[in-house]
Amino acid sequence: MAMVELNNLCKVYKTGSDTLTALDNLNLQLEKGDIFGFIGPNGAGKTTTIKIIATLLLPSAGTVRVNGVDALKEPGRARGFIGYMPDFFGVYDDIKVWEYLDFFAAAYKIPKDRRPGIISDVLELTDLSVKKDAYVESLSRGMKQRLCLAKTLVHDPPVMLLDEPASGLDPRARIEIRELLKELQAMGKTILISSHILPEMEEFCNKIGIIERGKMIVEGDVKTLAQNVRGYQSITLTVKANAEQALHMLQQMPELVQTPSICAENHKIAEGSLQMPRGCTLQFQYIGPPEEEYAVLQALVQAGIQVRSFFTPETDLEDLFMRVTKGQVA
Amino acid sequence: MWNNPVLRKELLRYKLRNDKSARIAGLVITALFLLVLYLLTGRYILFGASQSVAYSVWQVIMGLQFTAFMLILPGTAGNIISKEREQQTLEMLLFTPLSSAEIIVGKLLSSLLLFAAMLLPLLPINILIWARLIAHSTHYPFIQFFQTYLTQFLIGYFILALSVFFSNLLSRSLYAILASYTTLFGLFCIGTGLLSGLVPSLVWLNPFVLFFEHSLAENQSPADVLSFTMALFLLTLLATVLLAVSIAKLRKPVQGM
Ligand SMILES: Nc1ncnc2c1ncn2[C@@H]1O[C@H](COP(=O)(O)OP(=O)(O)OP(=O)(O)O)[C@@H](O)[C@H]1O
Ligand SMILES: [Mg+2]
Asked: What is the pLDDT of residues A40-77, one digit of tens each?
């Protein structure tokens, strides 16, 4: 059963005599454990979608199901399955961190004797244990963001809706949020996260959707998407020797490979990994059938070329984003 | 009632913070003020002056206290919900399983308790005056002591409910507070006076008339008791209706936005 299911969702805003179609027949299906990256330019309709799932906004048409519950008919029950972090939010800053969490735990009718355990668990998870007795006011912005995340976790919701949880944070705080999201992922939660910071999304999202002017333009697994959109998959190859021969071979496979070349600079596979010596790294674009790029590797190996690595570098989501969106706003 | 999370949260927020010196300074100032008041008036009222002077002093104290509350209360409660909206905490509050009634009632109770606490400092002097009054004659009905407090409390409830209503209805604290003051003074104090030419009994809806003309009056005319009781009942009923409307509307604007 899908944890989140949107069918033909539409939202029309009426401001005076103007009408604005913010969502146009949006469909989405998230399974348990999915981490869905919801990407789109400003004004695309991300916040609108998230608010509708969170039952804080009524759609003009369409259906929303959360964990099998019709969110329009039983908003209260649906909310119980959701942890929601708005894009803009405030905190009660004149109380202490644990009092803040205790208030939300009480609001979720968690019995008094179970609350201290839950509070220390969520504080631990969000790395705020040392701030337990501090006033919320004294927290930095990144800490407040984590406190808000801690608050959304007190009732252990299976679905999390996070509207730009890392916006306005410095790189370090963003990494902390990212680590936290990985932990939530490991706990098996279904997470929908909207963000503008694209490189971060591809690292832990197993699905992404790109929305523009209220329409889901593309949706699916990051790598497959990239190939579908671009029509090719870039591959980096390192050989022990005979780079020239490898290049020649690649040039002989025009139906699978285009623009093969030998990289001029030293190539580093990843941060801290060993450097591949100059002249031993090749790059090409694979244009054959999806998921059959091994055929190229097979041919090289059979020809006696000593291949040390063969991999697809991180998909450049930013490039993908620029390709599919037109920069138009609803 | 004590388990209402919203009430508990609001009470926590009243608590003066870390700042010990501010807390001590506040206590010392209050204590000094009361001490001076009690020293100046206490001996004189209790032993010196005549019964009627003591009674007048009581009237002045209660009258001042009542006027002060009329001026203060709309301001203290007028932002109670709009503030949550302004500091962007309302959405998360509405997202919890707390019922709309729990939220509104919790908010109202917290301001009602603050109001009740503000009635306390002058309570002892009023008790002392009445102890003297009833010890020496039967001219002054002891029931009047309770009646003034009850009247004050119910009018306070009305003002707070009115403020909570506007605080929920209008999204800005400033407008909500202005609307509370305007309704209280413009409609219920001045408006009823202007309209009393047409419907004389309307003047009873003026809280000042209720309190000064009846509750504090030395000789309460039996003919007025019915009007007084009716008016007080009406205000209480109106307050309760306003609260019910607030509860019904609390989650509406977000859903229908
Ligand atoms: N309350 C509202 N009344 C009228 N129009 C609205 C309202 N809220 C949003 N919109 C419009 O709906 C469209 C989608 O807005 P939304 O906030 O969902 O975008 P978003 O994808 O979250 O953008 P951002 O990345 O800037 O947060 C925008 O064109 C916006 O102007
Ligand atoms: Mg948004």
From this structure: 888 889 999 999 999 989 999 999 999 999 999 998 89
From CA A163, how far away is CA A38, in angstroms rounded? 9
Q: How far is B104 from chain A (nearest CA, A)?
A: 14
- Kindly indicate whether the ipTM for this predicted assembly is greater than 0.95, answering yes or no: no
Asked whether the beta carbons of A239 and A282 are under 8 A apart, the reply is yes
Q: For residue range B77-100, what is the model confidence (pLDDT) as tens digits?
A: 888 888 898 888 999 999 999 999
The pair phi, psi for residue B85, each rounded to 5°, is -70, -45
CA distance linking residue A178 with residue A183, whole number of Å? 9
Structure tokens at B216: 């504090």
Could you identify the atom of ligand 1 that is nearest to the CA of residue A164?
27
Strand partners, A15: A18
A196 Cα–ligand 2 center, Å: 10
A90 touches chain B (CB under 8 A): yes
Domains of chain A: 4-227 (3.40.50.300), 231-313 (3.30.70.1570)
pTM for the full predicted model = 0.80
Residues around the ion ligand 2 (C-beta < 5 A) = A 46-47, 87
Query: Which pLDDT tens digit goes with each residue over B173-206?
Result: 899 999 999 999 988 888 888 888 888 788 888 8
| Euclidean distance between CA atoms A64 and A4, whole angstroms | 8
